[in-house]
Amino acid sequence: MRSWLFDGQDTMMATHLDDICGTAFHLADFPSGHRLFGQGEPGDRVYVIISGLVKMSCTVAHGNEVVRDIRGPGDVVGELSMFDPGPRSETATCQTLVRTGWLTSASLRRLADRYPDLAQRWLQALARQLQNREAEMAGVVAADVATRVARQIVSLADRFGQDGQDARGTVHVYHSLTRHEFAQLAGARREAVSQALAKFVERGWLVTTPGGFDVFDLDSLRHRARGAFPDVRRRYPA
């Protein structure tokens, strides 16, 4: 498992693992549908995802739930509670069987006091998340729906894609979301997202699967995610 908590050589893991596992780190498995924490609850735990997928969502006007992100292996959930134990801003729900390592926010703060590099890495990760959120908000305003959909598919493929090990270079992407939830992630209406996906399927770039995609032409999707319109290349599976 790779995580932004550890650098390229995992030196932080090697340096701090005994302290974390010996005093504060707990392994736990949670079934699909289990809620790790809810919006508005106290931020008293931090989770590192070892395997599985976790949906991050929030409740907006009229009680509607909006999907904000999907977290997977190596990602940290509840990261703000290291600095702010106040009410959670999001709900974290297991989309699959999830294995995590968790520790209390108080234990994490004590570790940060002992190891300043941990706190620095945490702040850097939070800064990147803020930058990504700002970029996403700008994209929702400026980009057309097909561009937003392509960006989400590329992001999911880069984070969770599995090599299909075939001559076509298929990338299997499982995100666990319904079509409605994926549309929320893309910041568009379900009907508009379905239309964009249908065009991608027609061009041979991907096919939809239950809770995911089989991607055949990731390069074209990357171009489309940048707002470009690549030449149509039909690459349907044989």
TrEMBL record:
Gene3D superfamilies: Jelly Rolls, Winged helix-like DNA-binding domain superfamily/Winged helix DNA-binding domain. Pfam families: cNMP_binding, HTH_Crp_2. SMART domains: cNMP. Residues 5-129 form the Cyclic nucleotide-binding domain. CDD domains: CAP_ED. It comes from the Bacteria. Residues 143-219 form the HTH crp-type domain. PROSITE patterns: CNMP_BINDING_3, HTH_CRP_2. GO terms for cellular component: cytosol. InterPro entries: cNMP-bd_dom, cNMP-bd_dom_sf, Env_Response_Regulators, HTH_CRP, RmlC-like_jellyroll, WH-like_DNA-bd_sf, WH_DNA-bd_sf. GO terms for molecular function: DNA binding; DNA-binding transcription factor activity. Keywords: DNA-binding, Transcription, Transcription regulation. This is Crp/Fnr family transcriptional regulator. It comes from Mycolicibacterium canariasense. The lineage of its organism: Bacteria, Bacillati, Actinomycetota, Actinomycetes, Mycobacteriales.
